[in-house]
Amino acid sequence: MTLHLDDDELVACVACGLCLPHCPTYRVTGLEIASPRGRIAAMRSVQYDDAPIDAAFVGAMEECVQCRGCEAACPSGVAFGHLMEETRAVLHDTPGARPRLGQRAVEWLGYRIVLPNRVLLRMLTWLIWLAQRLGLVPGRFGLPKLAARDLTIRLDSDPDPEAFLFTGCVMDAWQRAVHRSALAVMRSTGARVAPSPNGGATCCGGLHTHSGRLDEARALARRVIASMPGDVDIVVDSAGCGAAMKDYGRLLGTVESEAFSARVSDFSEWVVERGLPELRTTGRSVVIQDPCHLRHVQHAQGPVHQALALAYDISTTADDGLCCGAGGAYAVYQLQLAAAIRTRKAEAIRNASPMATATVLVASANPGCAMHLGAVAGLDVRHPAELIEEALP
Amino acid sequence: MCFPRSTEEVAAAVRIAALHDRAFVVRGSGTGLAGGATPLADPLVIVMTQMNRILDIDPVEQVAWVEPGVLNLDLSRAVAPLGLHYAPDPSSQHACSIGGNVATNAGGPHCLASGVTSAHVRALEVVLADGSIADLGGLIPDAPGYDLRGVFVGSEGTMGIATAIAVHLTSNPPAVRTLLLDFTSVEAAAAAVSGIIASGILPAALEMMDAQITRAVEDFVGAGFPRDAAAVLLVELDGLPAGVAADVAAVERVGLAEGARTVRVAADDTERELLWKGRKSAFGAIARIAPDYYLHDAVVPRSRLVEVLHRVYEIAAEQRLTVMNVFHAGDGNLHPLIVFDAREPGIWPRVHDAGDAILRACVDAGGVLSGEHGIGIEKRDFMPLIFNPDDLDAQAKVRDSFDPSGRANPDKVLPAGSRCGEAQRIPEGAWI
Amino acid sequence: MDLTDALQSLAETVAAATGPVVGVGSRTQFDAGNPVPTDAIAIAAPCGIVGFEPTDLTVTLGAGTTCAELDAVLAEAGQEVALDPADPAATVGGVLAVGISGRRRLRNGPVRDAVLEVRFATADGRVVKGGGPTVKNVSGYDLPRLLVGSFGTLGLLGQVTLRARARPARTQWGARSGAPGAVLASLVQPSAVLWGGTITTVLLEGHPDDVDRELRAGGLECVSGPAPFPQGPHRGRISVRPSAIEDLGPVLDATGCRWLAEAGVGTVHVAADSPDALAAARAAACSAGGWLLREAGAPELDGFGIELPNVAIMRRLKDAFDPEGKLAPGRLPLISATASR
Questions:
Q1: What ipTM was reported for this prediction?
Q2: Min CA distance, B343 vs chain C (Å)?
Q3: Residue A311, CB half-sphere, CA atoms under 13 Å: how many?
Q4: Class in CATH terms, B180-281
Q5: Which residues in chain A are closer than 8 Å to B39, comparing Cβ atoms?
Q6: Which chain C residues are Cβ-neighbours of B368 within 8 angstroms?
Q7: Does the domain at residues B290-364 carry the CATH identifier 3.30.70.2740?
Q8: Using the beta-carbon criterion (under 8 Å), do A21 and B285 form an inter-chain contact?
Q9: What number does CATH give the domain C234-296?
Q10: Closest-CA residue in chain C for B109?
Q11: Of residues B261 and B426, which shows the higher confidence score?
Q12: What are the beta bridge partners of residue C221?
């Protein structure tokens, strides 16, 4: 059995251990196998020493949040995220490593049917809204409280837009208010903007890449690229989607996909680059949580801090941007670990807050993180776009 | 393997090992470089990562009690609001644990002026090999009797397991300046090191990086290290402002006199931290050059630095290997780093031969085997290079006094045959 | 100077002795701890500077060398080792064996931190080396730290290598009335803060401008020298936690002892006119969580007045290094009911 991992990538790790404290699962478990170094050692034993792909191996791989905090800490430049994606792809195709039929059926429905289908997703969203109204959704599911007012928001398009705001799948269904704020802030820079045509063909495929469904991810990427031809800027207000779309070039390996990826910016990157109008000073404090896919993958957290500092007293957590445990679908699969990681993160956020207020205002540029952290009592998690919109002149 | 959460659980694990006459090995973050925590012959591995609480901080007496799994940098961060820090700062300080630091008597760039771990550990609660719990040292200046604390620090898990550690916290100096000096030859840089020390300045840190490592580091951090320098010195001076200013001027003078091309003084904390991040990432960053490395850790008298560095480069050339040097120049603590690709056929013997030759060269120059990484299994069989049988016998007596059973991390530190009357098994060619 | 032969003959002398032996230097601290048998053979360590490399900041010397001589040699190169014995005639070996740190410990750390390498004679006549000559070394177990403060009960120190440092540009004593806590808190790096009950005396070392700044920060008046160590026929040294000193001072006053405390360190030097007063000082030290080493006089008083912690390990060390009990027998209270052998 082999994982078909790139040899150079796999041997690049010198096992120095500098990644350990930057790994959220190692931080909460103290287990070597829950660390990047341990996971690489496990990958090596499968690839080089004929170790079996057994439940222990699969579990160790699935426990990884794929936050890529280890990459930022790694002086050897180990491409851990890529190694993990490739490993998951192999696991996805390995009969013995697959989950049980029921789970597979749900995953198939989610990844293949719902996420790529805008109409179905919206219908499902209204169903959830209804169920929430009827009190049928237990709180432990961690779903945000949906409001009919938000679900019906219309996103206006300017003629001849200079930039598209990629609206995506879940975010388009559940967080249209963020999109509306993002468009408003983008307009405040003087630009003509519009939501992505055809919804940008919905899902970016990031979640699929994460779970090793690379073929599906590639199909979705092609669809997204096809939906936005030309050279108009593509602005993404979800750090996870932005990271995935900036990586299309590598995922598909075509000139066209690389050109597409080069057009993609994170929302804050784009508005800071374009130049924000003078913002009102709000006098409020906000703790900025850097989503992993913004900080460790896109390396684009700076503009969020720059933009918010214009209107807020910003502070940051003293944990080198340790992951919050959301990790796309991770919070659903790894309930306990995700919750333990979140608890640690919430503490770091409270410690970072200059005032001991009952509710701490938090900025997060990723909807997954926002939902995950938003479930913690006492944290009011908002997207930077919303906070900047409030401070527009 | 077990993951205790309390002193009592550690004691219980050790007693169970005793009951079954099993050896035990204690492990922290696994960042050690001498194999001290490597399990040999199927011992019970006691992993301390879950004993990671800071138990007490006393800002007046400047003491913190910590569990051994607390990470070095986490402690400094926790006491930063009090204007304090924990002085020993191994390059792995993000990841290494205080317990591991105690086991190896770890050093770090800033140990030049302030001393290595032993000088910062006041008291220890330890579990001995029989499962009993003992308190070594104390928060009073002198504990009566032998300095058992001093012997335990650096004993690499062969005397027991530290379960709580009282460390001294150092006040942050009011003034800190960091300088980067850039040379066109390694010799000139080494001469500048000697010149700085000889001029009576004791920098907080005095580090050297040679050309290749400087480029690798620059690729990682982009701190503006000169990519064309043959060697750079990173000098940190701290203390009261006037003394620091005078020392900065003196270091600049010495550096320029020895041929420094440029002397850059970090303008602010951000620039300082970036320079240090570069220095502390050096060992990991070499993977950008080759996937494997063998890192040595020997100390030579500071006055012999230049000749030993020469010899190190010669040895590497003889074995057709690349060697890089990044080290604590101020205290003569060399870290020759042999980089290679283990997939290359026949490379291992050359790497080992070069390593052996480098160690011998250091010992020949009046040096010692390890400055801060420890002996572990890596250098165990080199101990006869610097200690004669009587010396080793004395060390074996010390170890046996703590652990008469010999179950605490056996076969580490001391080579077989250390005890008088024990069969001598000197590794081939270990005598020179 | 090469002491190899001298060390060998030191070891042979120890091995040849059939009764108890004790290392002696200048006998300035010979009464510290418990007495050795009166018939113990007194053996002196070799003296002289073996090697001094100013650019290495290390010095190697015979343990019988006096601190005064060492200081004179180092001073020529503008360096020093801050041993600071009360009597400069003390030998380096004596200071290390008793393990008394000088009054600049606050800045420089305990005396054992300055010892890099030791060569000592064992009871069975071997010369054993521990540590190494470099300023940084973790090769093997830390025998130097074990030997320092062992009162010559594990081996006789013959040769040592010490870490030197540059002499400060300016040395200035300052004083002000009141307890030391506030002074300590206001200074960045005093070398010593001594308190005798009414006056706090501070030693400042460093760049002249920094010394001035520290004098101002501490509200200190320049004085010519430190408060003297207390004198008297019955003397001792207390170790307590630094925070206990300000409460301990008045209690010591009530015993009739004269005393001088090293603030921030926790050492209190005590002198009394009667053994009873010294015993009272010991009681005060013990109730403050510390202990008192009898340094001179008060022959009826136990040298330590406290059971040694972990005496079983210490006993095993003693038995391993000196199975016949030849070296300074009785100096340390190594007998315990719980000792395993």
A1: 0.96
A2: 32
A3: 20
A4: alpha beta
A5: none
A6: 132-134, 137, 139
A7: yes
A8: no
A9: 3.30.70
A10: C136
A11: B261
A12: C175
